[in-house]
Amino acid sequence: MLKEISGVILECVQGDIVAQDDMDAVVNAANAQLAPGGGVAGAIHRAAGPELEKECKPLAPIKPGEAVITGAYNLPNQYVIHCLGPVYGKDKPAHELLAKCYQNSLKVAEDNKISSIAFPAISTGAFGYPLEEAVEIAIDTAIKMVKNLQNVKRIRFVLRSEHDLSVFEKNLARLSG
Ligand code: AR6
């Protein structure tokens, strides 16, 4: 599903974050140490190769809501933007910290003249954020940002399961445009 708002395309697809060949940047649902780990972070580091971890090391640790950028090595993209989501029930206020992830990642993309960026559903795996709430935050934050984006023209949300995709689609469908 796809919506165009203020000249920016917002879309959601079911798939794998490491297979977004047509995107300039992919976002990593990272850990504070920017180390491989499981889930999205594991998949990104596996696909990118060991050079990614080397570039990440001096940039760590990062705090919840923070985003940093690196090269993408063997991934089919130019950049990886690593973002630390809040651990649900621990890092507070969770809502604000999750919104900051999307704000800061989009800001980093904008500053680096990135025109297309793909996000996973940050914090909704190992970090336990309830999907429905996380989806609302992701979409609301992106909508608030689009008016101020000059370089970013396409924002894609990549969901692993059909169920997660349907939750995103329901939320995107509410937007006019
Ligand atoms: N492509 C797209 N989405 C994925 C993929 C993939 N390859 N793999 C998982 N998901 P998670 P978090 C979905 O756990 O909650 C790691 O161990 C998944 O179904 O990757 O922010 C790190 O090292 C879920 O909906 O990220 C951190 O310690 C969403 O992506 C910690 O997990 C996020 O799941 C970060 O936890």
Number of H- or I-type helical stretches: 5
Domain module tally: 1
Class per helix and strand makeup: alpha/beta
Number of strands: 7
**Nearest-integer average pLDDT:** 97
Proportion of β residues? 15-25%
The succession of helices and strands, N to C, reads EEEHHEEHEHEH
* Radius of gyration of CA atoms, rounded to a whole number: 15 Å
For this structure, what is the CATH class? Alpha Beta
In spatial order, strands of the major sheet run: 1-2-7-6-3-5-4
Distance between the termini: 12 Å
Largest sheet: 7 strands, mixed
Query: What's the architecture in CATH terms?
Result: 3-Layer(aba) Sandwich
Low-confidence stretches: none
Oligomer: single chain
| CATH topological fold name | Leucine Aminopeptidase, subunit E, domain 1
The CATH homologous superfamily is termed Leucine Aminopeptidase, subunit E, domain 1
Features:
177 residues; Leucine Aminopeptidase, subunit E, domain 1; 7-stranded mixed sheet; 5 helices; 36% helix; binds ligand AR6
Descriptive report:
It is built from 5 helices and 7 strands, in the order βββααββαβαβα. Strands 1-2-7-6-3-5-4 form a 7-stranded mixed β-sheet, sandwiched between helices. Helix 3 crosses helix 4 and helix 4 packs across helix 5. The chain is globular and about 45 Å long. It has about 180 residues and is an alpha/beta fold. About 45% of the residues are buried. It has one domain: Leucine Aminopeptidase, subunit E, domain 1 (3-Layer(aba) Sandwich). The two termini are about 10 Å apart. The mean pLDDT is about 95. It binds ligand AR6.
